[in-house]
Amino acid sequence: MVRYQLEDRGVTDPKVLAAMGKVRREAFVPAAERDFAYSDGPLPIGHGQTISQPFIVALMTEALQLNGGERVLEIGTGSGYAAAVLAEIAADVFTIERIAELAESARLALEEQGCANIHVKCDDGTLGWKEHAPYDAIVATASGPSVPKSLKDQLKIGGRLVMPVGSQFGGQQLMRVTRVSETDYQHEELDWVRFVPLIGEQGW
Ligand code: SAM
Question: Domain range for residue 87?
Answer without folding.
Answer: 2-193
